Amino acid sequence: MGKKVKWSWTSALVGAASATAAAAIIMGKPRDPTFHLISISLTSLKLKLPLLDADFILTVHVTNPNIAPIHYASTEMSILYAGSHLGSARIDAGSQAARSCRLLHLPARLSGLELAHHAARFIADVGKREMVLDAAVDIEGDAKIIWWNHKFRVHVDSHVVVDPVFLDVIDQENKSEMELFLS
Fold first, then answer.
1. How far is Cα 164 from Cα 158, in angstroms, rounded to an integer?
2. Which residues are bridge partners to 144 per DSSP?
């Protein structure tokens, strides 16, 4: 038959520890969060003669795919139209659990004055019922892993096509990139 193999508890423990460490490294590798604009709701119009500013609520679905909960500081998202700053949306400070999804409701204001600078293009977009907006934001915070707080920064660029009449989201492309600071 064959040789009898001697069992070694030391080898078994070293193998189990190696497998656990490899799984922790693979599962613990930081991944970029995802962002998806769900809806745009008009909340009010503010008359600033001769122009009109518009307030909206942007509903954004955010996913934290990481094994650590995060806490982030408040920030402002810039909203651009035809390369010009059209308005901004406020992101309040908050937190999100590990491996979770949540909806954020972001108050936004768009400037009628800035839109007036692109009136011909805006009227054409209303006629086509497609308006292209870009947005950018940097979100900073920390992720707590056991007893260490690791600082991070996420940069998000969004390219969104909306129906300017009914405010429907037609298409979007969102890119996020995370930097993790180990100090």
1. 17
2. 149
The C-alpha atoms of residue 178 and residue 152 are separated, in whole angstroms, by 7
Amino acid at 149: N
Query: Beta-strand (E) ranges in 65-99?
Result: 70-72, 75-81, 84-91, 94-96
| Tokens linked to 25 | 């490294």
Rounded to whole angstroms, how far apart are CA atoms 74 and 96? 13
| Rounded CA separation 100/86 (Å) | 32
Q: What is the pTM of this model?
A: 0.82
Could you list the mean pLDDT of each consecutive 10-residue stretch along the chain, which spans 183 residues?
A: 72 75 62 92 89 93 92 96 96 95 96 93 96 97 82 95 96 93 73
Reading phi first (left if > 0) and then psi (alpha if -120 to 50, else beta), residue 83 is in left
Residues 6 or more apart from 121 whose CB is under 8 A from it?
Answer: 82
- Segment holding 9, helix H or strand E: helix 9-28
Helix (H/G/I), strand (E/B), else coil: 21: helix
**Which residues have a Cβ under 8 Å from the Cβ of 111 and sit 6 or more positions away?**
51, 53, 86, 87
Tell the residue number behind the tokens 């037609």, with chain if given: 170
DSSP class of residue 29?
A: S
